[in-house]
Amino acid sequence: SQTIHQWPATLVQPVGSPLSLECTVEGTSNPNLYWYRQAAGRGLQLLFYSVGIGQISSEVPQNLSASRPQDRQFILSSKKLLLSDSGFYLCALQEVVNTGELFFGEGSRLTVL
Amino acid sequence: GQQVMQIPQYQHVQEGEDFTTYCNSSTTLSNIQWYKQRPGGHPVFLIQLVKSGEVKKQKRLTFQFGEAKKNSSLHITATQTTDVGTYFCAGRVEYGNKLVFGAGTILRVKS
C-alpha cells in the first residue's frame, strides 16, 4: 500500500527566512500530488497540485512555490517567509487509477515568528 | 471559482445524541468525498458518493448525496467520544482533478 513521508514534522522559522518542506511517496507510481495548508482550526486550502514530473499548478498566488523533481517527490518552498505562512502543511497523493480519494501525510507544522 | 460551504462550523453534543453536518456546492459535482481529522492528526478518507440521491452507511454514519449533486450530508447516530474530530466534505467538479474542501465541522462529544 502507499505511504507518504513528510518532513520536518515541526519547525519554527523567523520572518524572512527560507522554507523547504519535503514530501515523498512510496508504493505507487505516477500519482497526483497535492499541497494543502490548514490554518489553526480552519479548513484545507489547496496550494499546489501536480499530475507529473515538472508539472505544477498553483491555486493561490503567494510567496510559496512547489516543485516535483521526481515522480515520488514533491517539495514546497519559500524564499522569504511571512507571518501569515504559519500553519499545518499537508501533502496528499491521489492514485490515478482508483476512486480518487486522497491519502494525506502526517503533516508539517510551521510557525513563523 | 467553485466553492464548497459546510455548516455548522462547530457542534458540541452530549454522548448518545445525534449529529449532522451539511455541505453545499456552488456548482454541480461529479462526486463528493468525506474525511475525518482527529485532533492533532491528518484527514482520513471516509467515503465517496457518486450517484445522484445516493445514500451510504458505515455503522453509525449515514452519508447522502443530493438529487442535484450539489449538496451532501453526514449524519452520526448516537455519538460516541471516539467520534470527536473535524469532518470535512470535499467536492470534485466534473472533468476535474481538484478536490475543493469545505471548511469542516468540528465535533466535540461530552461524556
Describe this structure in words.
The complex is a heterodimer of chains A (113) and B (111). Chain A has 113 residues and is mostly beta strands. Chain A has strands at 3-7, 10-13, 19-26, 32-38, 44-52, 55-58, 64-70, 73-78, 87-94, 102-104, 108-112. In chain A, strands 2, 4, 5, 6, 9, 10 and 11 form a seven-stranded mixed sheet that branches. In chain A, strands 1-3-8-7 form a four-stranded antiparallel sheet, with no helix packed on it. Chain A is globular and about 40 Å long. In chain B, 0% of the residues lie in helices and 58% in strands. Chain B has strands at 4-7, 10-14, 19-25, 29-37, 44-49, 55-58, 61-65, 71-76, 85-93, 99-101, 105-110. The interface between A and B is medium-sized, with 22 and 22 residues.
Short description:
The complex is a heterodimer of chains A (113) and B (111). Chain A is an all-beta fold and 113 residues long.
Give the helices and strands, then pairings.
The complex is a heterodimer of chains A (113) and B (111).
Chain A: E1 3-7, E2 10-13, E3 19-26, E4 32-38, E5 44-52, E6 55-58, E7 64-70, E8 73-78, E9 87-94, E10 102-104, E11 108-112
Parallel strand pairs in A: 2-11
Antiparallel strand pairs in A: 1-3, 3-8, 4-5, 4-9, 5-6, 7-8, 9-10, 9-11
Chain B: E1 4-7, E2 10-14, E3 19-25, E4 29-37, E5 44-49, E6 55-58, E7 61-65, E8 71-76, E9 85-93, E10 99-101, E11 105-110
Parallel strand pairs in B: 2-11
Antiparallel strand pairs in B: 1-3, 3-8, 4-5, 4-9, 6-7, 7-8, 9-10, 9-11
